[in-house]
Amino acid sequence: MNECPNFIHVLQPLNSTHLYTCGSYAYSPQEAYIDTQSFSIVKKVSAKGRCPFSPFERSAVVIADGELFTATKTDFRGIKPQILRYFSKDGRPDVSLETSIRLLEEPTFVSSSLDPAEGKLYFFFSEVGKEFSYVEDLKTARVAQVCKDDVGGVRTLQKKWTSFTKATLLCQFEKQLPFNILQDVFTLPPPEGGDIADTLFYGVFTTQWSRGPESAVCVFRLEGIKDVFKGSYRTFVTGTHQWSTQQETHSYLGTCGLGNSTDAVLGEVKKSFLTTNPVTPVDKGPVVVSSEQQYSRVAVMRARAANDEQHTLLFLITESGFLHKVVLLDQGPWVIEEIQLFAQPQTVQSVVLSTSKGVLYVGTSEGVTAVPVANCSTYTTCSQCLLARDPLCGWSRASRACARVHGGHEDMVQNLEDSNVDDKCQGQTEAEKITVVRAHMNEVVRLSCLTPSNLATLTWAFPQSEKLFIQSDDGSLSFVVTNDTSGVYRCEAEEAGYKQVVESYDVQLMRSNLTPRTHETAGPDETYESIVTDDPTMSPTRLIHTNEYTTDDRKNGFTTSPTGKVTSKEHRGTNRNLQSSSSDTQYGVQLDDVTPKEKSYYGELVGVSLMLALCICIMILGSLHMWQKRKVSLGKDPLVTPEEGASINRPVESCSLSSRAELEPELKVVE
């Protein structure tokens, strides 16, 4: 049975008492009004044109003062884009885009935002840039602007937007190809009491030229977008379908209140809607670039550190449903942690950040999950807490734990801009805990060690470095226990010049009772195979320390904070064959399961001698039998002469090139 594609595209507060929702409803869009008190549907009607027909098509919606502003595809095939206003108040008509000229070229809407100060709405999308004369369609990231109270023209552009303009969003490094496909935009309002012009837009971009996952994050300021819309525009020439740059600047383009303008003014508005200059990012380039991840969603918040300094946190969602938490520091972006949101990879449909609750809500087609913005308890030591560089987490000297920073705590220790962990964690390091591992002689043991961070390098300190050891990719160490290899083993992690002991083991050799030997002392060439244990069938069990770990992995700039158990397979048998690999620091080991048996060299020698004598006797008897048989056959055959019989006994090599006639003996009839 196929799943019915019923997806919710819009769910927003319409007013103080009702929610507005719109869904695909199996390619027949429906909208509904939900009472917030009873959470019941009050009214449900057709919503064609207000949200997409397809459940996989994206749209952008803003509800302001009970009016609905939507950017979507209005037809079943998804080829007719529109930006519309519905539920218009004060008796003014609903408005939409002029259709006599293509104002949008195959757009994909991703986000929208409202500027309440100037009553303007901004829609972010990607489309085909028709102003470029290339063989291949060039995707371009755009931002479009309309005025909230636009009512259209009197004769020209009736019930159409007179304030529609669009500009290019440029996200690129100098002298490099741009990241030209916009995936998502998050609007970060200014700090409390700040200027609305300082509103920031964080956009996630990808590129159409990349063969692998690649993405970037660029930041745009509202003031910069306004300046571009106040500048010069390009004019679309209907006859040639080409763009030309205006020779003079028209101050009325991109402004509100053009409803009563002349037909000449509205005619210019109709064909001059693309700005000449692009909107450039705040830092003249991306603030985050990844050549290994393709991000699809973003959410941003400001975080106040223990010293009252504000930092920006980015929550980036990958296409497979992983969450990367990134902090923007002076020396560059720092990935704090990576979180796997779902057991199986899923495409994230929506992200909602609640700073008041400290929760990030992530929605897919199968459900919604809530992720706390801070996971301080995952860092179990002072060094782990500080090396994570999370502005929301700090090490409390009083409680000796990593906790959430709420500001004004003098006992909170953080380390965001430098790596001076030794001084800040002085006196906060716990005493070393050594785990005792007991093993029999020549038993293989495996000592587990999980790295606290993927940026850390694991090294083992052990008694005899010249012996054969195996250090696996997961950090564990395996070796054969002997008198020389027993002792204390320490697993150390080094990150940013700071070293810490992650695990400590004391490997102790368990003595076994040996059977009496024939000779009192062993010869110089005696091997372990000549030693007989009390129980030859015993299969020793490997003693491995298994514990709960909390890790903070930041490999390649990515961080994980899962909690898992370390498990490994048992190796049975006491005899092992060791082979050293070509690596200078690690060795390969091959384990053969061999059950130890009591051996006698004298018994083996007698058995081999008897078998050799028996083989010789069989060979002699076989040779006599063949000679006797051939002699009898030559003496009794009347059809073959002695000379011909001798020719039969010629070697095979002498006739290997002869014909068949030469090989067959001549037959003679004897009368």
Would you write up a description of this structure?
The chain folds into four domains: 1-84, no CATH class; 95-292, YVTN repeat-like/Quinoprotein amine dehydrogenase (Methylamine Dehydrogenase, Chain H, 7 Propeller), CATH 2.130.10; 299-428, ligand-binding face of the semaphorins, domain 2 (2-Layer Sandwich); 434-518 and 531-590, Immunoglobulin-like, CATH 2.60.40. Helix content is 11%, strand content 33%. It has seven helices and 39 strands. The strands form twelve sheets. It has a four-stranded antiparallel sheet, with no helix packed on it. Strand 34 (487-495) and strand 35 (498-510) form a beta hairpin. The radius of gyration is 41 Å and the shape is elongated. The model is unreliable at 514-600 and 635-671 (pLDDT under 50). GO terms for molecular function: chemorepellent activity; semaphorin receptor binding. Belongs to the semaphorin family.
Give the topology.
Elements: E1 8-13, E2 18-23, E3 30-35, E4 40-46, E5 60-64, E6 67-73, E7 81-86, E8 108-115, E9 120-128, E10 139-147, E11 165-168, E12 181-188, E13 200-206, E14 215-221, H1 222-229, E15 233-237, E16 242-245, H2 263-271, E17 274-275, E18 288-290, E19 295-304, E20 310-318, E21 322-329, E22 332-340, E23 350-354, E24 359-363, E25 368-372, H3 382-387, E26 393-396, E27 401-404, E28 412-413, H4 421-424, E29 434-440, E30 444-447, E31 457-461, E32 470-471, E33 477-480, E34 487-495, E35 498-510, E36 548-550, E37 563-565, E38 577-578, E39 589-590, H5 601-636, H6 642-648, H7 660-663
Parallel strand pairs: 29-35
Antiparallel strand pairs: 1-2, 2-3, 3-4, 5-6, 6-7, 8-9, 9-10, 10-11, 12-13, 13-14, 14-18, 15-16, 15-17, 19-20, 20-21, 21-22, 23-24, 24-25, 26-27, 26-28, 30-33, 31-34, 32-33, 34-35, 36-37, 38-39
